[in-house]
Amino acid sequence: MTDIRSYEDSRDAGFGDYVQLLKPRVMSLVVFTALVGLLVAPVSLHPVEAFTAVLFIALGGGASGALNMWWDADIDAIMRRTKGRPIPSGRVQPGEALAIGLALSGISVVMLALATNVMAGALLAFTIFFYVVVYSMWLKRSTPQNIVIGGAAGAFPPMIGWVAATGSVSVEAFLMFMLIFMWTPPHFWALALFMKSDYGDAKVPMLTETHGRRVTRAHVWWYTVALVPFSLALGFTPIGGNVYLAASLVLNAGFLRGAWTIWKRDEVAAEADGYKVEKSVFRFSLLYLFLHFTALLADAGLRAWGGF
Amino acid sequence: MALRVEHEMHQRRFSRNVGLGLVLAAFVALVFALTVVKVTNGDRMHADDGKANTGTVVQPASGGSQP
Questions:
Q1: pLDDT digits over A208-217, tens only?
Q2: Domain for residue B63, yes or no?
Q3: Residue B37 belongs to some domain of the structure
Q4: Where is the composition biased (Polar residues) (chain B) (predicted)?
């Protein structure tokens, strides 16, 4: 019976635990934005090549997620939100996560380069490097601007999709990058305002902890103001159109209004209504990004159809 | 009496093995499909004669008379 008891102590990971390492929810955003970047490009790929490109861009994002979990296992074990992740809960060994992350990084970069072009593969490799080394290893624990610069990693997928189709970076790809890059800080700081996080216990310098909530509220407003010109400018490039411009105007007005309200109210008012405004701005910011990219897709569809 | 080994650990291992098997099969199918697309849609290949962009154009084999 001793043998049986020792089996019960063993913690072999199931397939789902390895999938969890790849941060599937983040991957869904990567898939969507990379797909839009690829579909709105003026050069069209064969469907099999396009599918392969999006798959390996997503897998590259997943690989960087696994490497991030490997590196951050110590702070993940402290914070409530991340305690249940595969490594802190003991279902996956840190070494396994490292091996999977490195192997998938290599496979995704090589396969993307073979399926499309070397430039796209190189850009994916840089994205993984940026997320793992620049964000996770360097900035996350050293500066409250971690969200700002780390947001670049999440902003690369539509640019990689574009480069996979065209072979080079252009102003459209740059503006799609800037749209996500500038959107990330107000999105996360709105979340940080109403999430009673334990970043402080894990010694991760979040703006709400280092500079206080008053400063964070001001940051949400000013970064939203800085986001607007980039999102509108995208509407005046060849991939923009009437649908995008109309959607962008409405969405920017909504985001600015919400950010202004966040800036102008204080903690007492926020506590009183259970952070109602902050929560609604956070939800709106998700819709903001999703609808911007959907509008790009709609305009591309209309152009292909010959309508506009 | 038959020996039963259906411990929860075995289920986890089974899920892992099946999952990995499916992923590998899908990867093989994808590489195959990609190869077919690349070969059938590919440009005519240039023989490498060591000079930039001046390589001899190799026509696709018309088939039939190869030894």
A1: 888 888 899 9
A2: no
A3: yes
A4: 53-67
At residue A54's C-alpha, the angle toward residues A50 and A56, to 5°, is: 115
* B51 interface with A at CB cutoff 8 Å: no
Model confidence pLDDT, tens digit, residues A148-179 = 888 888 999 999 999 999 999 999 999 999 99
Count Cα neighbours of A210 within 13 Å in the Cβ-side half-sphere: 12
| Cβ <8 Å between A49 and B37 | yes
Domain that holds residue B27: 9-41
Handedness of CA B60, B64, B65, B67 (dihedral sign): positive
Contact (CB<8Å) A12/B16: yes
Query: Is 0.85 exceeded by the ipTM?
Result: no
Indicate whether B17 belongs to any domain.
yes
Contact yes or no for A91/A73 (Cβ under 8 A): no
Instruction: End-to-end CA distance of chain B: give it in Å, rounded.
Output: 64
Decide if B7 and A46 are in contact by the 8 Å CB cutoff.
Answer: no
Number of domains present in the structure of chain B: 1
Q: Is B12 in contact with A52 (Cβ distance < 8 A)?
A: no
Contacts of A12 in chain B (CB under 8 A): 9, 12-13, 16
**A132, A84 Cβ separation under 8 angstroms:** no
